[in-house]
Amino acid sequence: MNILVSRIDRAGDLILTLPIFRELRKAFPEAHLVAHVRRYTASIAKLCKEIDEILIDDDYDQGIVSNSLRNSFKDHNFDKAIIVLPAPRSIVAAWRAEIPEIIGRASNMFQFLLTDRRLQKRSRNIKHEFEYNLDLLEGIVPNIEYKPYNFNLKDSLIKEGKEYLEQLGLPESPIIVHPGHGGSALNLPPDMYSKIASRLIGLGKTVLVSMGPGEEKMEEYFFTLKESNKIFFLKDIQSFDKLAGIFANCRAFVGGSTGPLHLSASLGLPSVAFFPPVKAMTPNRWGPVGCKSFVVKPNLPDCKGKCKGCKDYGCMKNIDLMPVFDWLLGEIR
């Protein structure tokens, strides 16, 4: 049996989709499981031992109707396709490839091409994203285990991460402070992450400031701390598998709702996560899972995220950081 699972959006979304591969592998141990993902998230798929093959969406003709993507799907002779993100190009390619079973959300005008349409109403945010994803397996997989995915990294990858940190000169395993963000949710301003780093250094902890590609300018917010022998900077890491190897050698994570948060959570690191009071960005659906976590939000009712003109504009700046340090120190003692 050949099964396709398509999710061609962000890193965190793919991590929250990985439980599907775990459950498919348990139900169909001999199946050939194929992940259809974007190039920048492919290194996450490499960390999932249940995935047999990766199709990189960027390698095919772009647009809703992609002949090369359809041909690839056709050549793989898939028995089932699970379209987790209802991207029109994925649905159309699966239909044109005549895959017998095409399962996905009934959420856009292309849903009529699915053979199995699931009405989920995810916008209600009743469940976590990984649970909504697993719901797509109902009727396909018996006894679905509703638990998040935890990475079991190869020893060689962890060793490589340790050697990288040693080359940076870290005296001990650090706490990750990740000020960057992909834009999917409101975040703390960078200067507040600098305050977090300063406080942790003052408490005698080593801090690793993690910055993704294009976020290097954030280093300037930590300029006053650069004379300390307790702060280090992680940048120019181009793949999530290498980042995972580095994170596996760290003590905890502090950051917003972003891919590295879900990566750290899936590695079991104690994780502090900052979330805005926006209903669509709720931690009930997007918070860290699979680890000990501490979610911090402004003390405000949930809103629609229309910040301009809001009397509480800039609410993320008003978050009390002191409970963060109390929780972190309790977890890493």
Q: What is the correct CATH architecture of the largest domain?
A: 3-Layer(aba) Sandwich
Name of the CATH superfamily of the largest domain: Glycogen Phosphorylase B
**Uncertain stretches of 5 or more adjacent residues:** none
Strand content: 15-25%
Structural classification: alpha/beta
Mean pLDDT: 94
Strand order in the largest sheet: 3-2-1-4-5-6
End-to-end C-alpha gap: 48 Å
Question: What fold name stands as the CATH topology of the largest domain?
Answer: Rossmann fold
Count of DSSP H/I helices: 12
Note the topology.
Elements: E1 2-6, H1 11-15, H2 18-27, E2 32-37, H3 42-45, E3 53-56, H4 67-76, E4 80-83, H5 88-96, E5 101-105, E6 116-118, H6 129-135, H7 155-168, E7 175-178, H8 190-202, E8 207-210, E9 231-234, H9 240-247, E10 252-256, H10 259-266, E11 271-274, H11 283-286, E12 293-296, H12 322-332
Parallel strand pairs: 1-2, 1-4, 2-3, 4-5, 5-6, 7-8, 7-10, 8-9, 10-11, 11-12
